[in-house]
Amino acid sequence: MHYVLLITNTLSRHINDKKKKRSISNAPVIASNFPDPSFLEFDNTFYAFSTNNGKQNVPVARSPNFNNNWTLLKNHDALPTLPTWTTGNIWAPSVIRLSNGNFVLYFSGTSRNDKRKHCIGAATSSNIEGPYVPLDESLVCPLNDGGAIDASAFHDPISQKLYLTWKVDGNSLGGGGPCGNADGSHSTPIRIATLNPSTGTSLTGSASTILDRDKNDGPLIEAPSLAYSTSEEMYLLFFSSNCYNGVLYDISYATAKNVLGPYTKAKQPLLVSGDHGGRLKSPGGAEVSPDASRIVFHGNREAGKPAVREMWVGELSVRGNVVTI
User: Mind giving me the DSSP string for 84-120?
Assistant: First the structure.
């Protein structure tokens, strides 16, 4: 059984005690390895997708109510067949539904041309659970810059454009440390480009950088997820910083009035190790709903040990340029 710990904003409670309280699960809703989770609501059901577990390229889980009752689809692989450009090791899948009803799954996989680096691919299906059929060619593959990971699509409700964000994986180029780039010699920017809205499988514009690391982020930033708060008329770019395999890994965010920025980082992260009574350990790899109301993320089962990263869920509140959970 999973219980829910209610975390309330003092000001909002003072204004209206009857408003729904925001919450975060005080235990993982998937208590097995389910790293870098993403989710999508479809047909009154929530679906989650994760990095490979050593057996399935893209494991899938579902829930009727988001906050609990998540069930792993046993032996189910949303991406059972890989394209020839990758040798596998699939990371951080993310799914979007197009206006025509079809689904597109974005993922990163080890490049066959350079097995130290990942590239981003796309796959399509008429069923949210798959199987997804991958494109023959990668979608984003800047090998000279370190490759690309953590793709996430976002439909902008203001411009009605479809965007793809991703991380340039500069720390794969070296630089020392537990996850590379300890010497700060490589860039790990978050980039964005428009997608063909009809197919979701090709970029239609040049990519631009919307965020990069600073001294507070350690060797990298990664795991971008875009959302838009209608009430605050604000774009929110969620991301993780520091090494995924260390205790400093976190979930942070930045805000902007334009989808292309400039983005201003929040003064403090949204979630860090030790939050919520010490329950959270290296929270990161999050994805947020397009309206910034829900979040899924992983946390280590054991501090500093990423071998098992369990899935947590939470509800978000945006007030001004501050996000609370």
Answer: TTEEEEEEEEEEEE-TTS-EEEEEEEEETTEEEEEEE
C-beta of residue 154 within 8 angstroms of C-beta of residue 165: yes
What DSSP character marks residue 162?
E
pLDDT in tens, 19-46: 334 467 768 999 999 999 999 999 999 9
- Residue 59 CA to its chain's centroid (Å): 15
Cβ-contact 202, 195 below 8 angstroms: yes
**Interacting residues of 20 by C-beta distance below 8 A, sequence separation 6+:** none
Neighbours of 36 (CB within 10 A): 28
| Neighbour tally for 291: CB within 10 Å | 14
Tokens describing residue 203: 């970029």
Q: Which residues, in sequence order, are CB contacts of 199 under 8 Å at separation 6+?
A: 98, 104, 124
Measured CA to CA, the distance from residue 258 to residue 244 in angstroms comes to 29
pLDDT band at 13 (very low <50, low <70, confident <90, very high): very low
CA atoms within 13 A on the CB side of 202: 6
Sheet strands side by side (includes 4-6):
4-6, 23-25, 305-315, 294-302, 284-288
8 Å CB contact between 90 and 105: no
DSSP 8-class letter at 257: S
What is the rounded distance in angstroms from the CA atom of residue 67 to the CA atom of residue 39? 12
Please name the residue that has the structure tokens 């189910």: 76
CA dist., res. 288 & res. 235, Å (int): 12
Write down the pTM of the prediction.
Answer: 0.92
